[in-house]
């Protein structure tokens, strides 16, 4: 081992060895069980960020644990073609060359897109490897590879032939910049100052007007009705009454609809079916005309009359000016509201009707709802089921088409000769009905369509492959809560529909990585942290540990540079402890160490408890609790206590056994913590004398046989004595730097104090007996006397402490004697006050004895 901990000297070397030896590939284990999981595929446009790092660290720890427990594990890696994001990158590169999509054509554009993918697509994969993730890279999948593409076509054509897929005019999130429909998850909302325009719509018969309010006055040009609540007495008897649309002159009716809230504003709502999702639904219920007033690029079309050709921003200004000039503007109010923007090009999203492909979801969603209700699929934590059920119980048809070129082209073909439309699992050019030429639909599928098939398409479905038979359904999915609706729900429906089985048994939902102030990391706040830079500074293990230590399942992580440095120090502590152990073994060690001393038995017993605790946590996927337990044990119980005990024992007759205990304990700890920090544990393990094989393929530790309860109890009492002496030396100026010590009481404990106290508390030799003018430490079964250089000063200190204890005791007793407090206080608070009474009573007894009071 190197003299100092330097992760750069071994991390890449170790990972290459794992790859070369096929360590990440499935291999039968002693458990004779399988454990499979798929990686949520990152976008090929992506770079590793803290969210990715946490999203993959958690399952890697679980997979490594299962592998060491003897499971045949499969963790499938892959990445997503990311239609919109990738197309935007390629278009941007072409813009710099001075060419457009139209100039190079579809085939030319796709050639460029594939070239971009080959050049940049593996970037995030290589970054994931840097963190030590044990994915089976030999099974690397891509949502547009041949295997996944075959699955996509199989699913589309099947749903199409079954009548679940249809084409129709519906409202979608339309991006005028990308010129495509986009999903809700690709819309970023920001709060923006604007206005609320109140517009008068006059009755045709001249009897007055109705006032409506809008944040998008340019869309009024497409209004085809005004809706009011049927319960609103202000509009009783007005159903069907005609209004004249300002600026346009079109006659539009008043319709009654429960969608309108009577007690909100004027109780009247302008209905623009082509430009608002709620208005579209109202339009369907009342058979209203759908008039779209914008082109795909956001400019106004011929239905916008005098405003044709204007941008929507210019049209808004012109419409407001004309409404004001013609007396239709009642008032304008300042108004702040959320505005949606395309996550890629940042343009404002326009809810707009367009012809798209959809999947009918209501019937398909029913088995998915039941799968979670019945417990066939479990969410961890359970509270996230609420988001899932809310989405699934209110499911709408899924828009699956995108007006892009990069992606899975929709496998629907049209024959202009006979008018037939057909879906095909393979490319076809000739109409099977009339022999005429076919043209394929221009759109591509939503990226989420192929992602929905990920758990079984990566296993080779629709073929009946060995992987599919052995590893599907998978056991676990680990993902973030913000894609429960867009991804998790769709994987469940697709798995049930096409394989007859749920795609996974459990869904572990983790939180977000936040900064030290609790804010979500984002580009706009400038608070993001580059994991690659962090690893360059402190190594992968420190970063991995920082992302899971102490984090509750489903909880957010507050990333802190200070905390990260503490984990770097932890790695250094472990490294130095290992060097101490290796040095101790240099003169020989017992390969079957026994509990020769109480400290040995204490360590064996505490290790047994730790093994049980880590197993319990990891079985529940509670990686955060396991990490915390290991951190505390390694730092405190192993390094700060047993190694100090060992320094004494290595000088005596049991040195060989002590070295064996050290080596045994270190090996156990390395195996326990390896799933979380794989690099440093492997580097140390490789240096252990007589270490067998690869650490990551070794068996997870089992408890050491034996009853160590008495050794644990005795050693814990010894630790209390050591802590008490250390504390006295720190707080009492009258105590010498290396004081004499005397003790009396239980023989076994006195003997341990004599053996260990001089080294662990830096005292002089410990003798039997007692003495006057001493500081007294009185613990259960033992009294320790430490002579004082200044007895009067010590007496003053004891009197001050006694007065404080008496005051606190009186305060606690008064609370417990107060009937009102006892009746209202929670049980935990009452218990805390009772503990105070017991503690202060005991301390007062010790202090009065020291002071010689009765």
Can you describe what's shown?
The chain is built from 26 helices and 29 strands. Helix 18 packs parallel to helix 20 (655-673). The chain is an alpha/beta fold and 854 residues long. The model has no long low-confidence stretch (mean pLDDT 94). A four-stranded antiparallel β-sheet has the order 6-5-14-16.
> Could you give the distance between the termini?
61 Å
Structural class: alpha/beta
> Order of strands side by side in the largest beta sheet?
6-5-14-16
Which regions are unreliable across 5 or more consecutive residues at pLDDT < 50?
none
Work out the number of β strands. Answer: 29
Instruction: Characterize the biggest β-sheet.
Output: 4 strands, antiparallel
The whole-angstrom Rg is: 36 Å
Number of helices: 26
Portion in helices: 40-55%
Beta-strand percent range: 15-25%
Please state the average pLDDT score: 94
How would you sum up the global shape?
Answer: elongated
Task: Provide the fold topology.
Blueprint: H1 11-20, E1 33-38, H2 50-68, E2 71-76, E3 78-79, H3 83-97, H4 101-120, H5 123-130, E4 141-142, H6 146-161, E5 165-175, E6 180-182, E7 187-202, E8 209-214, E9 225-228, E10 242-244, E11 251-256, E12 268-271, H7 277-286, H8 312-325, E13 329-342, E14 350-359, H9 362-373, E15 378-380, H10 385-393, E16 398-399, E17 401-402, E18 412-415, E19 421-423, E20 438-440, E21 444-445, H11 447-451, H12 454-457, H13 466-471, E22 474-480, H14 484-499, E23 504-510, E24 513-514, H15 531-538, H16 540-548, E25 557-558, H17 561-584, H18 598-619, H19 623-649, H20 655-673, H21 678-687, H22 709-731, E26 741-745, H23 747-760, E27 766-768, E28 774-779, E29 782-787, H24 791-816, H25 819-824, H26 827-851
Parallel strand pairs: 1-2, 3-4, 9-11, 15-23, 22-23, 24-25, 26-27
Antiparallel strand pairs: 5-6, 5-14, 7-8, 7-13, 9-12, 10-11, 14-16, 17-21, 18-19, 18-20, 26-29, 28-29
Helix pairs in contact: 3-4, 9-10, 9-14, 15-16, 16-17, 17-19, 17-20, 18-19, 18-20, 18-22, 19-20, 19-23, 20-21, 22-23, 24-26
């Amino acid at each position: 081992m190197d003299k100092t901990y330097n992760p750069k000297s071994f991390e890449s070397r170790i990972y290459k060895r794992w790859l070369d030896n096929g360590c990440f590939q499935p291999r039968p284990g002693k458990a004779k069980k399988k454990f499979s999981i798929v990686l949520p595929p990152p976008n090929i446009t992506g770079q590793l960020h803290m969210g990715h790092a946490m999203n993959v660290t958690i399952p890697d720890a679980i997979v490594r644990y299962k592998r060491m427990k003897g499971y045949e594990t499969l963790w499938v890696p892959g990445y997503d073609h990311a239609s919109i994001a990738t197309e935007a990158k390629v278009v941007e590169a072409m813009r710099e060359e001075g060419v457009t999509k139209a100039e190079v054509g579809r085939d030319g554009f796709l050639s460029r897109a594939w070239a971009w993918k080959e050049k940049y697509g593996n970037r995030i994969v290589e970054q994931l490897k840097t963190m030590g993730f044990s994915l089976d890279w030999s099974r690397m999948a891509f949502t547009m590879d041949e295997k996944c593409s075959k699955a996509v076509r199989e699913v589309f054509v099947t749903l199409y032939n079954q009548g679940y897929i249809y084409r129709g005019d519906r409202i979608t999130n339309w991006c005028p910049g990308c010129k495509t429909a986009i999903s809700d998850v690709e819309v970023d909302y920001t709060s923006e100052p604007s206005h609320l325009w109140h517009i008068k719509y006059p009755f045709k018969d001249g009897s007055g007007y109705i006032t409506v309010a809008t944040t998008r006055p340019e869309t009024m040009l497409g209004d085809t009705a005004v809706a009011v609540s049927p319960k609103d007495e202000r509009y009783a008897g007005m159903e069907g009454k005609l209004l004249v649309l300002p600026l346009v002159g079109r006659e539009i009716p008043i319709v009654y609809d429960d969608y309108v809230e009577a007690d909100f504003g004027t109780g009247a709502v302008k209905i623009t079916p082509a430009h608002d999702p709620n208005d579209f639904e109202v339009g369907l219920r009342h058979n209203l005309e759908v008039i779209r007033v914008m082109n795909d690029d956001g400019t106004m079309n011929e239905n916008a009359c005098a405003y044709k050709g204007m941008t929507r921003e210019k049209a808004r200004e012109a419409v407001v000016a004309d409404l004001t000039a013609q007396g239709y503007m009642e008032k304008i109010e300042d108004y702040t509201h959320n505005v949606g923007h395309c996550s890629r090009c940042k343009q404002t999203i326009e809810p707009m009707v367009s012809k798209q492909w959809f999947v009918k979801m209501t019937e398909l969603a029913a088995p998915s709802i039941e799968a979670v209700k019945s417990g066939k699929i479990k969410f961890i934590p359970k509270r996230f089921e609420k988001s899932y059920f809310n989405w699934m119980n209110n499911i709408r048809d899924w828009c699956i088409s995108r007006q892009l070129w990069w992606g899975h082209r929709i496998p629907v073909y049209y024959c202009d000769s006979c008018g037939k439309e057909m879906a095909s699992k393979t490319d076809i050019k000739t109409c099977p009905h009339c022999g005429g030429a076919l043209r394929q639909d221009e759109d591509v599928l939503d990226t989420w369509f192929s992602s929905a098939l990920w758990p079984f398409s990566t296993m080779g479905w629709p073929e009946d492959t060995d992987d599919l038979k052995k590893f599907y359904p998978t056991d676990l999915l680990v993902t973030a809560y913000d894609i429960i609706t867009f991804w998790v729900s769709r994987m469940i429906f697709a798995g049930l529909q096409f394989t007859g089985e749920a795609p996974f048994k459990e869904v572990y939902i983790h939180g977000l990585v936040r900064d030290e102030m609790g804010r979500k990391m984002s580009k706009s706040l400038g608070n993001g942290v580059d994991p690659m830079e962090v690893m360059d500074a402190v190594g992968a293990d420190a970063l991995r540990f920082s992302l899971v230590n102490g984090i509750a399942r489903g909880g957010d992580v507050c990333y802190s540079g200070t905390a990260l440095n503490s984990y770097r120090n932890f790695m250094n502590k472990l490294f130095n402890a290992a060097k101490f152990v290796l040095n101790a073994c240099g003169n020989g060690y017992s390969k079957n160490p026994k509990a020769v001393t109480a400290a040995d038995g204490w360590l064996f017993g505490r290790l047994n408890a730790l093994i049980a605790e880590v197993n319990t946590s990891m079985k529940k996927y509670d990686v955060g609790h396991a990490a915390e337990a290991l951190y505390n044990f390694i730092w405190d119980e192993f390094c700060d206590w047993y190694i100090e005990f060992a320094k004494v024992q290595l000088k005596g007759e049991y040195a060989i056994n002590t070295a064996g205990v050290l080596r045994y304990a270190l090996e156990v700890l390395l195996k326990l913590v390896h799933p979380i920090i794989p690099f440093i544990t492997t580097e140390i393990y490789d240096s252990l004398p007589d270490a067998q094989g690869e650490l990551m393929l070794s068996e997870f530790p089992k408890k050491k046989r034996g009853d160590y309860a008495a050794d644990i109890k005795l050693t814990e009492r010894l630790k209390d004595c050591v802590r008490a002496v250390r504390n006295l030396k720190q707080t009492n100026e009258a105590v010498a730097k290396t004081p004499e010590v005397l003790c009396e009481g239980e023989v076994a404990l006195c003997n341990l104090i004599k053996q260990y106290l001089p080294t662990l508390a830096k005292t002089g030799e410990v003798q039997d007996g007692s003495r006057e003018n001493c500081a007294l430490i009185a613990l259960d079964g033992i009294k320790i006397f430490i002579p004082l250089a200044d007895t009067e000063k010590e007496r003053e200190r004891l009197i001050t402490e006694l007065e404080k204890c008496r005051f606190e005791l009186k305060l606690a007793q008064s609370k417990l004697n107060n009937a009102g407090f006892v009746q209202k206080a929670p049980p935990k608070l009452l218990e805390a006050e009772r503990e105070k009474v017991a503690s202060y009573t005991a301390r007062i007894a010790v202090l009065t004895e020291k002071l010689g009071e009765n």
